[in-house]
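Dear support,

We are seeing what looks like truncated structure output for some complexes. This example has two components. We would appreciate it if you could run it in full and send us the complete token output so we can diff it against ours.
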Amino acid sequence: MNLETLDTAIRPALFEYLLRLGDDALILGHRLSEWCGHGPYLEEDIALANLALDCLGHAEALLTLAGQVEGEGRTADDLAFLRDAYEFRNAQMVELPRGDFAFTIVRQFLFATYACLLYEALQQSVFEPLAGIAAKALKEMRYHLRHSREWIRCLGDGTEESHRRTQNALDELWMYTGELFEVDDTLQTLTQAHIAPDMTALYSAWNAQVMTTLQEATLTVPENPPYMATGGRRGHHTEHLGYLLAEMQFLQRAYPGAKW
Amino acid sequence: MGNEAKLLETFQKRINAGEKIEPRDWMPERYRRQLIRMMSQHAHSEIVGMLPEGNWITRAPNLRRKMALLAKVQDEAGHGLYLYSATETLGVDRYQLIQDLLEGRAKYSNIFNYPTLTWADVGVIGWFVDGAAIVNQTMLAKTSYGPYARAMIRICKEEAFHKRQGYEICVTLARGTPEQRRMLQDAINRWWWPTLMMFGPPDDQSPNSAELLRWKVKRKTNDELRQHFINITVPQVLALGMTIPDPELRYDEKTGNWLIGPIDWDEFWRVIRGHGPCNRERLRARRKAHEEGAWVREAVQAYARKRQQRAAQPVAAISQE
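Here is the complete output from our reference environment:
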């Protein structure tokens, strides 16, 4: 199935889904890019910039495709720079401020583990353009996973301070993990159409992989979290997203229609 | 002739013959010190230089520009790394050099003590500042110290790309709305004079020049390099329909040079002494990153020690049996 043979009935759900994937990559890439010039090592400045560039590249591909599926002539830039917070579909996890290095690493690890499994599965999507993007993105996300997994082991099992910071980051982030695996009507429609994967299977694999690494890193998952954050996929976000967009979209908003 | 004098004579002969000096070769202590000063200043400039443009990564106007700017600032971190490594060949430690920067003992290029106000600054920095750096570095790619020359060759290639990217941003603005053109002219006005100061004080006030030229560390004087940059850049500014903020600017038919009015050297010395618009902010940002990274660097060492101990344990257990 490609853009031409795409069933009209499925377009709205697919557009919605591509926004979710694209917005996750865009907002995470933006947060990672904030590290440029401020990392703990010069080598890490370079590594984090690489991760940010990968994510922004995925965002561009996914949002371009979203615009094509929508069929209203919107480009990736239109979608990135001219939507307000309630129209963004990223999971709340990726919009949280970058925090300290431990926070950034734990988030990257939790997200990359998810993204690797997701892109691996999406390579089998019957919607060919998405399968193509997933295959390319998977190669890069595997690097993100290796990078963050090495760091999380080091920080978790490093000094008392690094352990405490990493455990705190995990405690804070854990309640944002549920959202990554939420299933709603949109996703069900796409799963039935073999465009998107079954999230239940994905969750078991994610959970097993995450637990193994966290154990190696001497970290523990908060037991019975009282609340799992939700809403990002419906445009309900934390307060942080508005500030992020105010900064990111400033030029496009201040000079409507200008070319850059 | 004493041994030292003989060595010095051989050294100068090698330099005159255009040979490269390598880390293990004999060199006068002063040559080594001058190179450490220049190369570490150059490395620091790359690192501090990440800040003014880095400011705009989160505000870049579209995805293509955002990625290009991020990649550019990332390249600068890479240049800093090559240059610190090249400086280490002279027997100094990178972390000592960084400490000198953070404690205000080392200098970096004055240009990074000026603020980036608008998106046009990102374009003009690429065009002017990277353009000036290329003029300087093209000369340094032929410098007599091998590791420095090789680092420069690599860096020059990337800088040429940065300059094109910066100029392209400016071309887009020049062809844009009246507001975008005003933004561009304002950025040109603010960056022109500080960029000309990047080549250093005039030749008659440059204390290190004669020695550096004799050792072929430098191969052209500050004023020669500055004039070369002016001659390249003025026609480019005019081609965009923009103006140079210098009422005395004129073309000299006889020499083919664009001649400029007086440079405000008082400003240059004031900024060098720490009183530019952003000196404090730049150092504060570097110190903050360094201090906030301290626990990470400690964790890396602690983790490495633990791994070593664990790797050693099974062997110990076997030997006890």
